[in-house]
Fold this sequence. Notes:
globular, six-stranded parallel β-sheet, alpha/beta
Amino acid sequence: MAAKTREPCDHLPVARVCVDVPLAHLDRPFDYLVPADLAETAQPGTRVRVRFARQLVDGWILERVEASDHDGKLAYLERLVSSEVVLTPEVARLARAVADRYAGNLADVLRLAIPPRHARVEGEPAQAAEAKTETETETETEQDSPAPGAGSEGAALEGAGSRAAGSEGAALEGAGPEAVMPAFDLAGWEAYRAGGYLKALAGGAAPRAVWSAMPFEDWPARIAEAIAATVSGGRGAVAVVADARDLDRLDAALTAILGSGRHVALSAALGPAKRYRAFLAASRGKVPVVVGTRAAMFAPVPELGLVAIWDDGDDLHSEPRAPYPHAREVLLTRAQLAGAGALVGGYTRTGEAQLLVETGWAKQIVPPRETLRTRAPQVVPAGDDAQMARDPAAATARLPSVAWEAARHALKDDAPVLVQVPRRGYVPSVACADCRTPARCPHCSGPLALRSSNATPACHWCGRVAAAYTCPSCGGRRLRAAVTGARRTAEELGRAFPGVPVRTSGREGVLATVPGGAAVVVATPGAEPMADGGFGAVLLLDPWALLTRADLRATEEALRRWMNAAALARPGGRVVVATDGAVPAVQALLRWDAAWHAARELAERRELGFPPAARMASLTGPPEAVADLLAAARLPEGAELLGPVPVGDEERMLVRVRRGRAAALAQALHEAAGVRTARKAAQPVRIQVDPLDLF
DNA sequence: TCAATCCGTATC
DNA sequence: ATACGGATTGAC
């Protein structure tokens, strides 16, 4: 092998590179010499190949510097993958902060932030998107077509993708700072008396808000208006929604307000080519706005002025790949670092959002009570199933008579009826048989659950069995598991109205919309379609299946699902929840007051030491490996260990610290992981900060 | 005393 | 991963 004689370039001859290896102890930049022929092209933010431990690996240039402080001799960059700058300084800083918060590696975060390169897309001239069809290879055609059976969802994305791609050319002329911006409309936000929020965005300020939307709100229009205000001030925006249906709606709302060519829709579902094309439109500064699913949360937009997230309680916002960052946290970190505004919106409010309000980090935007009165549906509690059994009208369909009445009334009006039925498969938790207060562990306040049907309940956090349990709220000593039979009820309901079409929307086949006529629509939570003109009635069946889930967020999540469904009712329509009104979550629904519920919920979590009032991390792996990691970890003072709890053939430990020690905890865990990877410990431990499934 | 082997460590 | 250095061990 003839050694190529290379010379370092004159100006800034050292490149600091993040190498793409997933080892915790190598999570720092490595210095390489920039050969003279790459002096101009190997810019910070480009992808490179470097020799690392005698292997060729991918990497990203973080910066170019005059000299290295490395003692040994430097290797040369092996190759510049492309001169495309895919990592902006803003995103680089964000990625480092996210890695630190989640006890992860920068390389892991960069792999989430930067989509895989697609060379052909990179080479495309700016407006050749339409003409590229003839050069498309079979693989790309395959990747780009929607999955078989994806139905309307696939078609919607297809539309979003071509709109995005086709708009690049137009954006070239329109995106300059002198371009005439459309005036933004304040009316929708004035209903919340929040016109000032939009004005601040337009004026270049960084207002931060937690927004609780009123029922039947056209939320995509509101977010689009906030984005338009930001754009009118010459800045960019990133907005994240949970799924493809929401993205499609937001995409359409933006096109209506901004026109085409000012934004792209970005989601992993686009496939590699379209995804990279949308990413490049943003990173090349062709569009000021990126909307998408969580794949878009790191999207580079020039001059970021606003980050927005809709329905931050949806667990799809949680990234399933290491280091498992949550879109809300990424976007808020981003707003903080970039000095951008933030909008955390939803019909409901998470504990995390409530914390933003209570710490003063964000202001709340809530509908005034009098406005709410004119827009809200009429929410009615229908008593619990004990009451239902005594109700003769309910006998036919095992349905509370109020629900029956509401459905009949709506159908007579030729309006559709939505029936929400919880999905099966939740981990059954146990509750007091008398007052139904969820049973909590006397030791650590974790939820009690049954591993098998006739076992003694045990704590999901610390593993202790609760032999002699006494309900703290009523003194009851009997426990019962949650049961569900609502699916059948819904089917029977359909049969009870002969001649009325029954449609279902759920795991296999999600409907985006239904027409306005009389119909019964049975849907699982999250799969509710929109109805033309709104539903005449919304029936929330089997609320106990949601409320008694073995999950820390059970009530918050139940309320979220109810409000998301209830929001689809037309103003004045009827919403029936099949339980009595004593439960706080039901009260919050009746009054359409998610803020009140979130404040209550957060206060309770503070008292019990739950997130987000405390910071938790879970360590999952073979028992020896978990113990090994903990032995190596220099945990911050006051760290509390809970567990172990068996998870399959592995086990899980929880570490809990107060919020002020969160950064120290993440650092300690990352460091300990580094000690183990340096030692080449064979058995991996999964470290999750703020794990989603905290039950 | 030397060489083969094991172990731990750094990887620009 | 993989190679390197230093330590360790075994045979002459």
